[in-house]
Amino acid sequence: PYYIIREREATGFWKSLIDSTEIVIECSGNSNGYRLPTEAEWEYAARGGNRSKNYIYSGSNNIDKVAWYGGNSGGKTYAVGLKQPNEIGIYDMSGNVWEWCWDCKGNYTSPRQTNPKGPSSGIGRVLRGGSCRNYARYCRVANRDYSMPDYRHSYYGFRIARNK
Questions:
Q1: Alpha-carbon distance 125 to 38, whole Å?
Q2: Whose CA is closest to 140, among 43, 56, 49?
Q3: Each residue of 69-109: pLDDT tens digit?
Q4: Model pTM score
Q5: Residue 11: strand pairing partners
Q6: In what order do the strands lie in the sheet with 98-104?
Q7: 2 falls within a domain
Q8: Which of 51, 75, 79, 119 is 20 to 30 A off residue 111, Cα-Cα?
Q9: How many Å apart are CA 66 and CA 51, to the nearest integer?
Q10: Could you tell me which of 2, 8, 75, 57 has the C-alpha nearest to residue 34?
Q11: Nearest 5°: CA angle at 138, between 81 and 55?
Q12: What CATH number did the domain enclosing 125 receive?
């Protein structure tokens, strides 16, 4: 995940990333380019994709092996990759920083769906994963939360997805 430590550093990083890609005019989720993952994409990756072992946290049932959370972080974020990855090699999907998803907050509309898209409008955007300031229960792969997109916190971050 990426979280902003200093706005000046973040601006330079994203400017270089954006300058090396095509300009995205419309954010449809189908265009070639970078974007926030949908909630379903985030959960699929956090669960370990098609190699999932149905762990409670992303990569283990033992939170201390895979996450920085309120019980072991001292309330601060850490560099990505210091804990073990999940089944498909992704680090820090439980704990460290809450991760923004593209979907707006909404209830699940049916018990089982394949790659559903969440609501496109609503009172806030979905956050997943928990953070360095939360109890372990908030870092479960199944846990869902939301916030207003203009809220800024040192423990909010994001992970990018890319369409080809």
A1: 10
A2: 56
A3: 999 999 999 999 999 999 999 999 999 999 999 998 888 77
A4: 0.80
A5: none
A6: 144-147, 125-128, 98-104, 156-157
A7: no
A8: 51
A9: 17
A10: 2
A11: 65
A12: 3.90.1580.10
Residue 89: CB atoms within 10 A of its CB come to 10
Q: Where on the phi/psi map is residue 64: left (φ > 0), alpha (ψ -120 to 50), or beta?
A: alpha
For residue 117, what pLDDT is reported? 77
User: Can you tell me whether residue 50 is helix, strand or coil?
Assistant: helix
74-5-32 Cα angle (round to 5): 120
What is the domain range of residue 34?
7-163
Structure-token match 């498909």, residue found: 88
**Residue 149 is which amino acid?**
P
Spatial CA neighbour of 29 closest among 108, 107, 116: 116
What stretch of H or E contains 9? helix 7-19
pLDDT tens-digit profile of 123-137? 899 999 999 999 999
Place of tokens 């109890």: 135
CA 132 to chain centre: 14
Could you identify the residue written with the tokens 């019980």?
71
- Extract the tokens encoding 159: 């992970």
How many domains is the chain partitioned into structurally?
1
In a domain, residue 1? The reply is no
